[in-house]
Design brief:
2 copies of one chain form a homodimer. Chain A is α/β, with parallel strands linked by helices. Chain A is about 35% helix and about 25% strand. In chain A, helix 4 runs parallel beside helix 9 and helix 6 packs across helix 7. Chain A starts with a strand and ends with a strand. The relative contact order of chain A is 0.13. The interface between A and B is large, with 61 and 61 residues. Strand 12 of chain A pairs antiparallel with strand 12 of chain B, so a sheet runs across the interface. Chains A, B: Its EC number is 1.1.1.3.
Chain lengths: ~425, ~425
C-alpha cells in the first residue's frame, strides 16, 4: 500500500466543509487519480460544536490552527481561514517554515503576501498552491501557468467577481436598480452582509493582480490596480448599453504595455461595455470567466462557477492532488526571484472607445456645453443618445459613445465639465471591450 | 547552468514548423518557466529542401525518423508525423521502449493505440503526453485530468472539430448550402482536399474517445462512438432551428450512463440543436469548446482555437514544458491498468428532445401520415412547422420538435415511416442540448 498524503485543514466554513465533503465523497476516485489516498490528519476551526453535516469526530481536532503546521503527521496545510494577514498569514508562514506544503483559497493573502510566501516555499522546497483563490472552480491558474506556458501572454481579462456579475445581469434581466438588486443578492446569499470588497471591485482586483503576475512573469502589484466598483451603474446605463449593442460587466483587465518604449504593467478593474458578439457578454449570474491572449495560442477562454463550496473545494483538492502526484511547478509559474519588477503603466495614451453617461438638468444649452467640452478636449463622438425627461426641468440622461482615442482626452473633457452646474451628478465613464 | 531538455522533432509540416518557430521565438521565456532551456537536438521530415521559413541547418537532420528514438542526446521525441498507424506508431513505440518521453498531436494514433502506449510508457517510466491531440490550443486534457481531478465527471461534451463548426456557422451567417460552403472552406484552408475525416465526424470521434477515457477513468473505446457528420444538414434546417431558438453544432458528447442499473459508456458525435442561451451557441468559426460537468465543480467551459499551427504548437510545447518541470501525471489521469472496461451504453432509453426534419412531397395526407406514425410510436410533438412549397406538387420541409421522451420512440417512428413514398429523402433526426 502506498503512503497517503496527509493534510491538515484550518478553517471549516463553507469552503472547508466543502473540502471535507468532497474528500469523503470522491475518496476512491481521488486515490486512483492521485496515485495515493488523501487523508485528513487534523482539522481546526473556531467552533467545534457547530453542525457542519459531517462527523467531526473522525478527525483529530486542534483548537489552535498554528499547531497544524508543526504536527509530524501532516504533509500539507490547507489554509481556509481567510483574511490577508492575521492568523491566516501566521499559519501560512509557519507551515512553510516547518517544511509543509501550503494550499490556500485566500486571494487577499496571496495578493498582498504571495511573493514573500512563494520565495519562502522555494527556499523550503515545499509546494505553495492557490488555484481556488482565483475564479473558484475554474482551473485558470493552472491554465495560465501550465496550459499556456509556452506563450508570451499579451493580455488577460475577465469576469472575476460573481456577486457583481449576478447584480449586473439581474439588473439587465429585470430593469431594476442597483440598490434594490443588491438587497436581493444579500438575501439570497450571493452578496455578503458587508458587500464592500465585492461591489467596490477589491475582490476582483486581488484576483487580477494574481493572474497578471502569473501571465506576465511580473512581481505582484496589487497596490497598482486601478479599481472602480459597480455601484455607480444605473438601470439607465444598462438600457442605453443594450440599445447600442452591449452589456455591462465588471471586467478585470491586465496588459503589458510597451507602446511608449517602456514596459509597463496595466491593471484595471472597472465596469466595461462588452459587445453582444464577445463570449464574455454571455456570462450571466454568479459565473466567472477569464480570457487570456497569447502570441501562439490566440484567445483562450475559461468559464465556470466562480464561487460556492463545491467549486471552490474542487479547486482546493485539485491542488492537493497535484501535490500528491509530485508536481513541483513554481507558485507563479516561474521562481519568485525571476519575476520582473514592472512599474505601473500610465493610462492616458491608451486608445479606447468609451461610453460616457451624463445626468443633467433638462434645460437649454446643456447638450451644447457637453459637446463643446468633448470637442475642446479632442474627443470624437461616435453616437449620442439623449433620453427625454418626463417632466419639464427634470433630470435627463445623455449617453455618448466615443470613437477610439486616447483616454487622456476623455479625462480632459471630464475635467472641463467638472463643477458645471448643468450636471446633476459626476459623469460615469466606462471603456468598451473590443470584439 | 542547468541541463537543457533535449527534444527531437519528427515531422515538419504545419504543426512541426509551428513548434520550431515557437521554441525559437519564446526561448528565453520558456526557459524561465520550465526552469531549463528546451533544445531541439534533431529533426526529421520527408523533405529536407522545402522552405519552412526557418534555418534548418541549425538542427541536426535525420532522414529516418525512427533514428530519433535511439539518439543518445534526445530526452523526448515529439511525433508530428500523423496517421493512426505506420511510421508514427512505429516511432512512438520505439521512442518509449528506448526510454524517451513522447509528446504527440496525433489524435488518431491515441484514439486507436493510446492504451497500449500509456501502458508501455508507465512500464518504461517515461512521460506520454498528447494535449495537442484534442481541441488544438485549448488545455482541455490538462483541465480534465488535473484541474477537474477532484471530481466525478458526469458528462463531457463540446465542439471538437473546427472545420465542421466553420461550415455550420458560415451556413448560418450566409444562408448558403453545405456543399457550397465546404468548397469555400477548402479554398480558404479550413477544410482538407479530402474532408471526409472532418465532415463525417471521425476526427471529432477520435477526440471524444480520448476525452471520455480521461473524464471517466474508462478504457478508450473509439470503436463504440456513434458517429454522424454534418453533410446531411441543410440550410433549411438552420433556418428552422433559428426560428425555434437554436443553432446547429456538431457536438461530441460522452456520459456515464447508470440509468439501468448497469454502468455504460455513452459516446456520440452528431449535429445537435443548441439553445441560444447555452455557451456553445456562441462558438463560431473554427473555434473549439469543451464543457465538463463534475459533481463538485459544476459546469466548466474551455474555449479557444481548435487548430492551426500556432495554437497546436502552443499545446505541444506546453507538454514539453511539463516534462521539463518534472511533472509525472499518468497519460489518462490514472494508470492505464486502473482504467475500467465499460461497455457501450444502449441509447434507446435515453430521454431526449429531438428535432426531426422531413422532406416530403407537397400533397394531401402527408402530414397526417407523419403525425400518425409519431403517435403510434409514442412520440409527443411539441411544435411543428411546415414550410410551404413555391410550386404545386413540389418538395416541402416539415420540421418537428418533440417533447422529452425515449430516443427509441423516435427510432420507432422513423421505422414506421421508412420506405413511405411520401418522403423524398430519409428524415434527419438531431437531438437538442438542454440549456
Amino acid at each position: 500500500m502506498v503512503e497517503p498524503l496527509n493534510i491538515a485543514l484550518a478553517g471549516l466554513g463553507t469552503v472547508g466543509t466543502g473540502v471535507v465533503r468532497l474528500i469523503e465523497t470522491n475518496a476512491e476516485l481521488i486515490a486512483r487519480r492521485a496515485g495515493r489516498p488523501i487523508r485528513i490528519a487534523a482539522v481546526s476551526a473556531r467552533d467545534r460544536t457547530k453542525d457542519r453535516g459531517f462527523d467531526l469526530s473522525r478527525y483529530t481536532w486542534e483548537d489552535d490552527p498554528s499547531v497544524l503546521a508543526s504536527r509530524e503527521d501532516v504533509d500539507v496545510v490547507v489554509e481556509l481561514v481567510g483574511g490577508s494577514d492575521g492568523p491566516a498569514l501566521a499559519l501560512a508562514r509557519k507551515a512553510i517554515a516547518g517544511g509543509k506544503g501550503l494550499v490556500t483559497a485566500n486571494k487577499a493573502m496571496i495578493a498582498h503576501h504571495g511573493l514573500e510566501l512563494a520565495a519562502a516555499a522555494e527556499e523550503a522546497g515545499v509546494p505553495l498552491k492557490f488555484e481556488a483563490a482565483v475564479a473558484g472552480g475554474i482551473p485558470v491558474i493552472k491554465g495560465l501557468s501550465e496550459g499556456a506556458a509556452a506563450n508570451a501572454i499579451e493580455r488577460v481579462y475577465g469576469i472575476l467577481n460573481g456577486t457583481c456579475n449576478y447584480i449586473l445581469s439581474t439588473m439587465e434581466d429585470t430593469g431594476r436598480d442597483f440598490a434594490d438588486v443588491l438587497q436581493d443578492a444579500q438575501r439570497l446569499g450571493y452578496a455578503e452582509a458587508d458587500p464592500t470588497f465585492d461591489i467596490e471591485g477589491i475582490d476582483a482586483a486581488h484576483k487580477l493582480a494574481i493572474l497578471a503576475a502569473i501571465a506576465f512573469g511580473a512581481r505582484l502589484r496589487f497596490d497598482a490596480v486601478e479599481t472602480m466598483g459597480v455601484s455607480p451603474v444605473k438601470a439607465a446605463d444598462i438600457e442605453q448599453a443594450r440599445a447600442l449593442g452591449y452589456v455591462i460587466r465588471l471586467i478585470g483587465m491586465a496588459e503589458i504595455d510597451r507602446s511608449n518604449g517602456v514596459t509597463g504593467l496595466f491593471q484595471r478593474v472597472r465596469p466595461h461595455l462588452v459587445p453582444f458578439g464577445h463570449p464574455l457578454a454571455h456570462v450571466d449570474g454568479a459565473t466567472n470567466a477569464v480570457v487570456a491572449e497569447g502570441n501562439f495560442m490566440g484567445r483562450l477562454l475559461f468559464q465556470g462557477a466562480g464561487a460556492g463550496d463545491g467549486p471552490t473545494a474542487s479547486a482546493v483538492v485539485a491542488d492537493i492532488i497535484d501535490i500528491a502526484r509530485g508536481e513541483k511547478r513554481a507558485a507563479f509559474s516561474m521562481p519568485a526571484g525571476e519575476l520582473e519588477a514592472i512599474e505601473p503603466a500610465p493610462t492616458g495614451h491608451r486608445l479606447s472607445r468609451s461610453y460616457i453617461r451624463f445626468t443633467v438638468h433638462d434645460r437649454p444649452g446643456v447638450l451644447a456645453e457637453i459637446t463643446a467640452a468633448m470637442r475642446d478636449a479632442g474627443v470624437s463622438i461616435e453616437s449620442l443618445i439623449q433620453k427625454g425627461s418626463e417632466e419639464e426641468g427634470g433630470e435627463v440622461i445623455i449617453a455618448a459613445v466615443t470613437h477610439e482615442g486616447p483616454e487622456s482626452a476623455v479625462t480632459e473633457a471630464m475635467r472641463i465639465l467638472d463643477g458645471s452646474d448643468s450636471l446633476v451628478a459626476p459623469p460615469l465613464v466606462m471603456q468598451i471591450i473590443a470584439d
